[in-house]
Amino acid sequence: MHPLIIHLIIVAVSSSGAIVLGHPAPADGTPAMRFWEQALPGTPMPAVIADLVQKGIDHSPLTEHYPINDDGTGDTAGNNAWNWRSCRRCQQKGADKGFYFLMTQVRVGSTLTFTFRRALIAPILPHDVAAKVPFDDLANVLTTFHVDPSSAEAATVNDTLSVCQVSPVDGEKKVCTTSLEDTVKSAKQMLLGTGSSGVMTWAAASATRSNGLPLQPYVIQAVAPLDGDRHVGCHILPYPYGVYYCHMTPAMPTKAYMVSLQGVSGGAPAVDMVAICHFNTSNWDPSHPAFQMLHTHPGGKPVCHFMAYANMLFGKKKAEI
Ligand SMILES: *[C@@H]1O[C@H](CO)[C@@H](O)[C@H](O)[C@H]1NC(C)=O
Ligand SMILES: *[C@@H]1O[C@H](CO)[C@@H](O)[C@H](O)[C@H]1NC(C)=O
Prior knowledge:
Oligomer: single chain
Distance between the termini: 65 Å
Structural class: alpha+beta
Bound molecules: 2-acetamido-2-deoxy-beta-D-glucopyranose
Radius of gyration: 20 Å
Strand content: 15-25%
Number of helices: 10
Helix content: 25-40%
Protein backbone atom coordinates (compact mmCIF):
# COMPACT_ATOMS: atom_id res chain seq x y z
CA MET A 1 0.00 0.00 0.00
CA HIS A 2 1.15 3.55 -0.67
CA PRO A 3 2.54 5.15 2.50
CA LEU A 4 0.21 8.12 2.10
CA ILE A 5 -2.81 5.80 2.12
CA ILE A 6 -1.57 4.07 5.25
CA HIS A 7 -1.09 7.47 6.81
CA LEU A 8 -4.62 8.52 5.90
CA ILE A 9 -6.05 5.33 7.38
CA ILE A 10 -4.17 5.97 10.62
CA VAL A 11 -5.40 9.56 10.70
CA ALA A 12 -8.98 8.41 10.04
CA VAL A 13 -8.82 5.74 12.73
CA SER A 14 -7.27 8.01 15.32
CA SER A 15 -9.63 10.89 14.64
CA SER A 16 -12.72 8.67 14.86
CA GLY A 17 -11.24 7.26 18.08
CA ALA A 18 -10.91 10.79 19.33
CA ILE A 19 -14.58 11.41 18.72
CA VAL A 20 -15.68 8.23 20.46
CA LEU A 21 -13.32 8.35 23.42
CA GLY A 22 -12.81 12.10 23.71
CA HIS A 23 -9.29 13.39 23.29
CA PRO A 24 -7.63 14.11 26.62
CA ALA A 25 -6.08 17.56 26.89
CA PRO A 26 -2.27 17.52 27.20
CA ALA A 27 -1.03 16.67 30.70
CA ASP A 28 -4.54 15.81 31.94
CA GLY A 29 -4.39 13.29 34.77
CA THR A 30 -0.60 13.49 35.15
CA PRO A 31 0.98 13.96 38.59
CA ALA A 32 2.33 17.33 37.35
CA MET A 33 -1.22 18.49 36.53
CA ARG A 34 -2.58 17.27 39.86
CA PHE A 35 0.21 19.10 41.67
CA TRP A 36 -0.41 22.28 39.67
CA GLU A 37 -4.15 22.29 40.38
CA GLN A 38 -3.50 21.95 44.07
CA ALA A 39 -0.68 24.50 44.28
CA LEU A 40 -2.24 27.12 42.00
CA PRO A 41 -6.02 26.87 42.40
CA GLY A 42 -7.88 28.98 39.86
CA THR A 43 -4.90 29.14 37.47
CA PRO A 44 -5.22 26.70 34.56
CA MET A 45 -1.89 25.26 33.43
CA PRO A 46 -0.83 27.29 30.36
CA ALA A 47 -1.18 25.23 27.15
CA VAL A 48 2.53 25.61 26.27
CA ILE A 49 3.51 24.13 29.64
CA ALA A 50 0.95 21.31 29.41
CA ASP A 51 2.40 20.43 25.98
CA LEU A 52 5.94 20.21 27.38
CA VAL A 53 4.76 18.03 30.27
CA GLN A 54 2.99 15.67 27.86
CA LYS A 55 5.99 15.60 25.55
CA GLY A 56 8.26 14.66 28.47
CA ILE A 57 6.08 11.56 28.92
CA ASP A 58 5.34 10.61 25.30
CA HIS A 59 8.75 11.47 23.83
CA SER A 60 11.10 11.37 26.78
CA PRO A 61 14.40 13.22 26.30
CA LEU A 62 15.99 10.13 27.85
CA THR A 63 15.21 8.28 24.64
CA GLU A 64 14.81 11.04 22.05
CA HIS A 65 17.45 13.68 21.51
CA TYR A 66 16.28 17.31 21.45
CA PRO A 67 18.64 19.99 20.13
CA ILE A 68 20.42 21.97 22.83
CA ASN A 69 22.23 24.55 20.74
CA ASP A 70 22.23 28.16 21.71
CA ASP A 71 23.63 29.66 18.56
CA GLY A 72 20.91 32.15 17.79
CA THR A 73 18.45 29.69 16.29
CA GLY A 74 17.26 29.44 19.86
CA ASP A 75 15.44 32.29 21.46
CA THR A 76 18.53 34.37 22.16
CA ALA A 77 16.86 37.43 23.54
CA GLY A 78 14.14 35.50 25.28
CA ASN A 79 16.44 33.03 26.89
CA ASN A 80 19.15 35.40 27.97
CA ALA A 81 18.01 38.99 28.01
CA TRP A 82 16.23 38.52 31.31
CA ASN A 83 19.64 37.96 32.82
CA TRP A 84 20.03 41.56 33.86
CA ARG A 85 23.33 41.04 35.53
CA SER A 86 25.29 40.33 32.43
CA CYS A 87 23.25 39.30 29.41
CA ARG A 88 26.54 38.05 28.02
CA ARG A 89 25.03 36.34 25.01
CA CYS A 90 22.80 39.27 24.12
CA GLN A 91 25.89 41.40 23.86
CA GLN A 92 27.67 38.85 21.74
CA LYS A 93 24.78 38.41 19.36
CA GLY A 94 22.90 41.66 19.72
CA ALA A 95 19.52 41.40 21.41
CA ASP A 96 16.58 41.53 19.04
CA LYS A 97 15.45 45.04 18.28
CA GLY A 98 12.16 45.76 19.94
CA PHE A 99 12.65 43.14 22.63
CA TYR A 100 12.45 45.85 25.30
CA PHE A 101 9.86 48.58 25.57
CA LEU A 102 8.77 51.33 27.92
CA MET A 103 5.83 51.38 30.34
CA THR A 104 4.29 54.18 28.29
CA GLN A 105 4.00 51.76 25.37
CA VAL A 106 1.86 49.35 27.37
CA ARG A 107 -1.56 50.69 26.35
CA VAL A 108 -4.31 49.83 23.89
CA GLY A 109 -3.54 51.11 20.39
CA SER A 110 0.21 51.26 20.89
CA THR A 111 2.33 49.49 18.26
CA LEU A 112 5.42 47.43 19.06
CA THR A 113 7.75 46.00 16.44
CA PHE A 114 9.48 42.81 17.54
CA THR A 115 10.19 39.18 16.76
CA PHE A 116 10.49 36.01 18.75
CA ARG A 117 12.84 33.54 17.20
CA ARG A 118 12.19 29.85 16.98
CA ALA A 119 12.74 28.45 20.45
CA LEU A 120 14.30 25.22 21.56
CA ILE A 121 11.87 22.67 22.86
CA ALA A 122 13.01 21.11 26.11
CA PRO A 123 10.33 18.73 27.37
CA ILE A 124 9.65 18.78 31.09
CA LEU A 125 10.55 15.52 32.82
CA PRO A 126 8.07 13.95 35.23
CA HIS A 127 9.10 14.80 38.80
CA ASP A 128 10.01 11.22 39.75
CA VAL A 129 12.18 10.83 36.64
CA ALA A 130 13.85 14.22 37.14
CA ALA A 131 14.75 13.21 40.69
CA LYS A 132 16.76 10.28 39.33
CA VAL A 133 18.69 11.93 36.50
CA PRO A 134 21.86 13.87 37.16
CA PHE A 135 21.65 17.63 37.02
CA ASP A 136 24.90 19.24 38.07
CA ASP A 137 27.49 16.66 37.06
CA LEU A 138 28.45 17.59 33.50
CA ALA A 139 30.03 14.29 32.46
CA ASN A 140 27.10 12.33 33.84
CA VAL A 141 24.53 14.55 32.09
CA LEU A 142 26.33 14.22 28.77
CA THR A 143 26.42 10.43 29.03
CA THR A 144 22.82 10.09 30.15
CA PHE A 145 21.51 12.24 27.29
CA HIS A 146 23.93 11.02 24.62
CA VAL A 147 25.65 14.37 24.09
CA ASP A 148 29.13 14.28 22.52
CA PRO A 149 31.47 15.91 25.12
CA SER A 150 33.36 17.77 22.39
CA SER A 151 30.21 19.24 20.80
CA ALA A 152 28.78 22.75 20.96
CA GLU A 153 25.79 21.21 22.73
CA ALA A 154 28.08 20.02 25.53
CA ALA A 155 29.49 23.54 25.91
CA THR A 156 25.94 24.90 26.15
CA VAL A 157 25.03 22.36 28.83
CA ASN A 158 28.14 23.45 30.74
CA ASP A 159 27.12 27.10 30.34
CA THR A 160 23.71 26.36 31.79
CA LEU A 161 25.29 24.59 34.76
CA SER A 162 27.53 27.63 35.34
CA VAL A 163 24.55 30.01 35.19
CA CYS A 164 22.82 27.84 37.78
CA GLN A 165 25.87 27.55 40.04
CA VAL A 166 26.93 31.20 40.16
CA SER A 167 25.86 32.89 43.39
CA PRO A 168 23.12 35.51 43.32
CA VAL A 169 24.03 39.16 43.76
CA ASP A 170 22.38 42.36 44.93
CA GLY A 171 19.52 40.84 46.87
CA GLU A 172 18.50 38.55 44.03
CA LYS A 173 16.98 35.20 44.94
CA LYS A 174 17.62 32.50 42.37
CA VAL A 175 17.29 28.77 41.95
CA CYS A 176 17.41 26.26 39.09
CA THR A 177 14.70 23.62 39.01
CA THR A 178 14.39 20.41 37.03
CA SER A 179 10.69 19.60 37.26
CA LEU A 180 7.44 21.52 37.09
CA GLU A 181 6.67 20.65 40.70
CA ASP A 182 9.98 22.10 41.91
CA THR A 183 9.51 25.18 39.74
CA VAL A 184 6.09 25.94 41.21
CA LYS A 185 7.26 25.17 44.75
CA SER A 186 10.35 27.38 44.44
CA ALA A 187 8.45 30.27 42.88
CA LYS A 188 5.84 30.16 45.64
CA GLN A 189 8.49 30.05 48.30
CA MET A 190 10.31 33.05 46.83
CA LEU A 191 7.09 35.02 46.66
CA LEU A 192 5.58 34.05 49.97
CA GLY A 193 8.47 32.97 52.13
CA THR A 194 7.33 30.47 54.72
CA GLY A 195 4.24 30.78 56.83
CA SER A 196 1.93 32.78 54.55
CA SER A 197 -0.01 29.82 53.30
CA GLY A 198 -3.24 31.82 53.13
CA VAL A 199 -1.93 33.92 50.23
CA MET A 200 -2.83 32.61 46.79
CA THR A 201 -0.40 32.54 43.90
CA TRP A 202 -1.03 32.78 40.17
CA ALA A 203 1.13 31.73 37.23
CA ALA A 204 1.06 32.88 33.61
CA ALA A 205 2.88 32.20 30.35
CA SER A 206 2.82 33.84 26.94
CA ALA A 207 0.80 31.94 24.35
CA THR A 208 3.61 31.98 21.80
CA ARG A 209 4.52 28.82 19.94
CA SER A 210 7.97 27.33 19.71
CA ASN A 211 8.27 28.46 16.08
CA GLY A 212 8.29 32.07 17.25
CA LEU A 213 6.69 35.24 15.95
CA PRO A 214 7.63 36.98 12.70
CA LEU A 215 9.32 40.39 12.81
CA GLN A 216 6.63 42.98 12.20
CA PRO A 217 4.57 45.63 14.01
CA TYR A 218 2.02 44.32 16.50
CA VAL A 219 -0.76 46.52 17.80
CA ILE A 220 -1.91 46.16 21.40
CA GLN A 221 -5.61 45.36 21.49
CA ALA A 222 -6.06 44.79 25.22
CA VAL A 223 -4.06 45.17 28.40
CA ALA A 224 -5.04 43.38 31.62
CA PRO A 225 -2.90 44.06 34.69
CA LEU A 226 -1.83 40.95 36.60
CA ASP A 227 -1.82 41.11 40.40
CA GLY A 228 1.19 41.91 42.52
CA ASP A 229 4.09 44.31 42.79
CA ARG A 230 6.82 41.64 42.97
CA HIS A 231 7.08 38.70 40.58
CA VAL A 232 9.13 35.57 40.11
CA GLY A 233 10.27 34.95 36.56
CA CYS A 234 11.11 31.35 35.60
CA HIS A 235 13.11 31.03 32.40
CA ILE A 236 13.71 27.78 30.58
CA LEU A 237 17.42 27.19 29.91
CA PRO A 238 19.13 25.30 27.08
CA TYR A 239 19.56 21.80 28.50
CA PRO A 240 18.62 18.25 27.43
CA TYR A 241 15.30 18.62 29.28
CA GLY A 242 13.26 21.39 30.88
CA VAL A 243 15.38 23.22 33.45
CA TYR A 244 14.08 26.51 34.80
CA TYR A 245 16.02 29.41 36.27
CA CYS A 246 13.65 31.17 38.67
CA HIS A 247 14.54 34.49 40.20
CA MET A 248 13.31 37.66 41.80
CA THR A 249 14.79 40.64 43.58
CA PRO A 250 12.46 41.35 46.50
CA ALA A 251 13.63 44.97 46.83
CA MET A 252 12.84 45.79 43.20
CA PRO A 253 9.18 46.35 42.34
CA THR A 254 7.72 44.99 39.12
CA LYS A 255 4.39 45.23 37.34
CA ALA A 256 2.96 42.53 35.09
CA TYR A 257 0.34 42.52 32.35
CA MET A 258 -1.42 40.15 30.01
CA VAL A 259 -1.22 41.91 26.64
CA SER A 260 -3.27 40.90 23.58
CA LEU A 261 -1.45 41.70 20.36
CA GLN A 262 -2.46 41.50 16.73
CA GLY A 263 0.09 41.47 13.93
CA VAL A 264 -0.44 44.45 11.65
CA SER A 265 0.33 42.69 8.34
CA GLY A 266 -2.33 40.56 6.68
CA GLY A 267 -2.71 37.06 8.05
CA ALA A 268 -0.43 37.85 10.95
CA PRO A 269 -1.02 36.05 14.21
CA ALA A 270 -2.88 37.31 17.25
CA VAL A 271 -1.18 36.37 20.47
CA ASP A 272 -1.56 36.89 24.21
CA MET A 273 1.77 37.75 25.82
CA VAL A 274 2.81 38.17 29.42
CA ALA A 275 4.72 41.43 29.89
CA ILE A 276 6.82 42.38 32.90
CA CYS A 277 8.06 45.88 33.71
CA HIS A 278 11.03 46.36 36.03
CA PHE A 279 10.68 49.59 38.02
CA ASN A 280 14.13 49.67 39.50
CA THR A 281 16.98 48.68 37.21
CA SER A 282 19.72 50.06 39.44
CA ASN A 283 21.35 46.62 39.84
CA TRP A 284 21.45 45.90 36.08
CA ASP A 285 24.68 45.86 34.15
CA PRO A 286 25.16 49.37 32.61
CA SER A 287 26.06 47.73 29.29
CA HIS A 288 22.77 45.81 29.20
CA PRO A 289 21.28 46.19 25.70
CA ALA A 290 17.93 47.34 27.14
CA PHE A 291 19.48 50.68 28.09
CA GLN A 292 20.86 51.37 24.67
CA MET A 293 17.64 50.28 23.01
CA LEU A 294 15.45 52.50 25.18
CA HIS A 295 17.94 55.35 25.69
CA THR A 296 17.99 54.95 29.43
CA HIS A 297 20.38 53.78 32.15
CA PRO A 298 20.50 51.73 35.39
CA GLY A 299 17.96 53.20 37.78
CA GLY A 300 16.26 55.13 34.95
CA LYS A 301 12.85 54.61 33.36
CA PRO A 302 11.13 51.24 33.93
CA VAL A 303 12.12 48.59 31.39
CA CYS A 304 9.53 46.13 30.08
CA HIS A 305 9.76 42.91 28.09
CA PHE A 306 7.59 39.96 27.16
CA MET A 307 8.04 36.52 28.63
CA ALA A 308 9.42 34.20 25.94
CA TYR A 309 8.12 30.79 24.90
CA ALA A 310 7.62 28.35 27.80
CA ASN A 311 8.80 30.86 30.41
CA MET A 312 6.54 31.45 33.40
CA LEU A 313 5.73 34.36 35.63
CA PHE A 314 4.40 33.95 39.17
CA GLY A 315 2.73 36.54 41.38
CA LYS A 316 0.56 36.90 44.47
CA LYS A 317 -3.17 37.19 44.03
CA LYS A 318 -4.82 40.24 45.50
CA ALA A 319 -6.58 39.21 48.69
CA GLU A 320 -10.10 38.19 47.80
CA ILE A 321 -12.57 40.17 49.87
C1 LIG B 1 32.57 24.62 31.99
O1 LIG B 1 32.40 25.98 32.35
C2 LIG B 1 33.32 26.42 33.33
C3 LIG B 1 32.91 27.82 33.76
O2 LIG B 1 32.59 28.63 32.67
C4 LIG B 1 34.72 26.34 32.77
O3 LIG B 1 35.66 26.78 33.71
C5 LIG B 1 35.02 24.87 32.38
O4 LIG B 1 36.26 24.78 31.77
C6 LIG B 1 33.94 24.35 31.45
N1 LIG B 1 34.12 22.92 31.31
C7 LIG B 1 34.06 22.32 30.13
C8 LIG B 1 34.29 20.86 30.15
O5 LIG B 1 33.81 22.91 29.09
C1 LIG C 1 16.44 51.02 43.63
O1 LIG C 1 17.13 49.97 44.29
C2 LIG C 1 18.31 50.42 44.93
C3 LIG C 1 19.03 49.18 45.43
O2 LIG C 1 18.17 48.35 46.15
C4 LIG C 1 17.96 51.39 46.03
O3 LIG C 1 19.11 51.85 46.66
C5 LIG C 1 17.21 52.57 45.41
O4 LIG C 1 16.78 53.44 46.41
C6 LIG C 1 16.01 52.09 44.61
N1 LIG C 1 15.42 53.20 43.87
C7 LIG C 1 14.16 53.56 44.01
C8 LIG C 1 13.70 54.70 43.16
O5 LIG C 1 13.40 53.00 44.78
